[in-house]
Amino acid sequence: MLLVLLALWILFNGRFTLEIFLFGLVLSSALTWFCRQFLDYSPKMEKGAYRMILGVLGYLWLLICEIVKSNWTLLGYVYGRRKELKPKLVTFTTPLKSQFARNLLSNSITLTPGTITAMQEGQKLTVHCLDEAMAEGVEDQAFQRKLLALESKADEIRTEKKEAAE
What we know:
By secondary structure, this protein is mostly helical.
């Protein structure tokens, strides 16, 4: 945390001099001490936060890749020789525990072209797919697997925080 705060201080100042560096070092040290004393900050929590950031970036990369793949598929439908689309509704239960993760899953499905989350009731999702071919594998998506991994990392961080507090 100290190094991140110091780097931000230097970056926001726009130049690097000895006095800016020393003042930033003192300020960053004071903020790090304050966070450790009063905000339950620990290096273990910081390590867990970095792992979560990497997981979230991985999820965003997966979302972008799936959006691009779905766009190519829809281009094939629009400019291809297919005569008739067969829309389909798929209802499935997700193993995601938190409401935030379920909302993120349903929004990710909606962001992917050709699919829309029509209804979300607890752990049950109903997804409208533009064609039957798009409906295959909706229940077991890469989105869901990635969100399950992120949920387990968040649970690990919470248990580490509880153990540190005791």
